[in-house]
Amino acid sequence: MNSEYQFTDTADVVVCGAGTAGSIAAIAAAREGKTVALIEQFGIAGGSAPLSLVTPMMHTHIRGNPMNSCLSQEINERLLELGAASGDGSSFDPLVISIVLEDLLVKANVRILYHTLITDVKREGNVIRGIVVHNKSGRGRITGKVYIDATGDGDVSCLAKAGFAAGEEETVKNQPVSLRYMIGGIDIPKFRDFLQQYENRDQPEEYDPNRGISTAMTIPNTGKWPLEPVFLDAVEKGDITREDATYWQVFSVPGRKDCLAFNCPEFFENTNGTDNRDLTYVQLHGKKAILRQLRFYRKYFEGFDDAYISDISAMVGIRESRRIVADYNLTAEDVVSHRKFEDAIAQSNYPVDIHGRKLRNIKIRQNNEDTRPFYEIPYRCLAVKGIANLLVAGRCIGSDFIAQSSLRIMPTCRAMGEACGIAAAISLNENVGIHELDGVRVRNLMKEKGARFV
Q1: pTM
Q2: pLDDT at position 223 over 70
């Protein structure tokens, strides 16, 4: 063994990051008969779900919510069997999903390297020759034939000197970040009745309050926030800050009868997900905000007398950071005009979703004559430009700022992961480069395995 490294490993496919996209990429490649090494800096699979407590899984806004990934459908079914998901799979327990993913990874014979940090990428010309890592065993090198960057922030691509962009094109400002948390010990029926008092005010006909507690932020399709008077009263009395009242969202968690998940506090400054100083700031100040908000709930809400903090995100919730330059980069125009691609590996009609005081949402154009009202993501968005054997999956694929705000949801990221795993396998089986590979073949194989496309 090279004395420079305390350990080495070799696999056909090396997947970096065991989040939603990375785990599915690893499983997909392994099920195609490839040896797969999966590198993850934390000790859990699922990425932003268990680590940032991101729940629920957003709907693609395509009729029937078709899963472009057969593995995504399989995961949802397993969660349902465990009583950890809603009927349509949109709401789920963010911790149980990690157990489901780990079971699938192990059964597929994926070699998992937890608690392993990627520190460097060895590149010769336009080819990656290895990933340098560090963990409790020391310094190591993982060598593969095809590499998949599913780190969320495009860390591997960045280390490999691939091109990337970050932030809004004009301001270079990133989307706001969050430090989500869960609270247990809540009298849910009592809290629901409390919300009903406010949410019945001036509600539009299409608003259905009987869907349960899915959000208490705004009345859908309006700019109204029913609980705003409660929050502003607390701000005036000094019980919470104005920042606490800027963005607030709450979700039920299947299988947890007295627990709710909160999509806040949200930070509009210190939002660079690749700057350790910003990440540290959000963790420190976010926890203070969470304690402040818990006291607020106990004082102003009904049903929180015995409430307690049951979980706080171990990882800051990042909506957008690096966007890696790919063979094709999805644009805002592609999204809002419902553009279709022959080599599409994912479909979505999820709206442009940009958070922030000075950033305004842009709605996807509504065309009543459009019989297929959704946009597609081509395989080429996953092939990292200028590097022969590197694919990328997740929120960091090739796109502009506005397009990324729509494609970043879990169903889409899962489809990207499956596409990367299958593309890597086809590339190796047929000795064809990932850039020369026809994405239509990737899509067709995904469909053969059960992925559903409109």
Answers
A1: 0.94
A2: no
